[in-house]
């Protein structure tokens, strides 16, 4: 069975468009789409993420304990093939990005085993990237 995933659109706040361009375009290597002085469309692996320049506040931030780590909430990200996950982790390390949670295997030996890593963009938005050796385990119980 082929899984068809619709594209998603996500708009996030950033306080500096130049720093957003350096991070999303430079560090993550995402292609830039339409833009203005106040926003930029990014091709987030076929999905549309838009960085909008607004005053950034941390009022709604929190964390939740998962597998012995404090997972930042809210966050967004992608599920990548394992080879892409590890290539991105290397690219982030090479760029000197500080991880909130370093790349590691979560739920090792359990249903839903996955590689995961968390980081923040320059405006403080939390991102998670993960990879499953067996993507059918995405919603494992």
Estimated share of beta-strand residues: 35-45%
Residues in helices, as a percent range: 10-25%
Q: Rounded to an integer, what's the Rg over CA atoms? A: 15 Å
Total strands: 10
How many helices in DSSP terms? 2
Protein name: Glyoxalase
InterPro entries: Glyas_Bleomycin-R_OHBP_Dase (IPR029068), Glyas_Fos-R_dOase_dom (IPR004360), VOC_core (IPR037523)
Pfam families: Glyoxalase
Domain VOC: 6-132
Please characterize this protein's 3D structure.
The chain has 141 residues and is α+β, with helices and mostly antiparallel strands. The chain is 17% helix and 41% strand. It has two helices and ten strands; from the N terminus they run βαββββββαβββ. The strands form three sheets. Strands 1-4-3-2 form a four-stranded mixed β-sheet, covered by helices on one side. The longest helix has 13 residues, at 82-94. The chain is globular and about 45 Å long. The mean pLDDT is 92.
Task: Compose a concise summary of this entry.
With 141 residues, the chain is α+β, with helices and mostly antiparallel strands. 17% of the residues lie in helices and 41% in strands.
SSE topology sketch:
Blueprint: E1 9-14, H1 17-27, E2 32-35, E3 39-44, E4 47-53, E5 62-66, E6 69-73, E7 76-79, H2 82-94, E8 99-106, E9 114-120, E10 126-131
Parallel strand pairs: 1-4, 7-10
Antiparallel strand pairs: 2-3, 3-4, 5-6, 8-9, 9-10
Q: What keyword list fits this structure?
A:
141 residues; alpha+beta; 41% strand; VOC_core
């Amino acid at each position: 069975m082929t899984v068809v995933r619709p594209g998603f659109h996500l708009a996030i706040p950033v306080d500096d468009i130049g720093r957003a361009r350096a991070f999303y375009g430079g560090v993550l290597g995402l292609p830039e789409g339409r833009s203005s002085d106040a926003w930029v469309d990014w091709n987030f692996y076929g999905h549309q993420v838009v960085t909008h320049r607004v005053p950034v506040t941390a009022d709604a931030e929190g964390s939740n304990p998962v597998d012995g780590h404090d997972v930042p909430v809210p966050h967004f990200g992608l599920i990548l093939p394992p080879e892409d996950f590890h290539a991105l982790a290397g690219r982030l390390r090479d760029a000197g990005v500080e991880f909130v949670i370093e790349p590691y295997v979560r739920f090792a030996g359990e249903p839903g085993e996955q590689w995961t890593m968390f980081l923040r963009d320059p405006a403080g938005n939390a991102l998670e990237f993960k990879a499953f050796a067996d993507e059918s385990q995405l919603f494992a119980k």
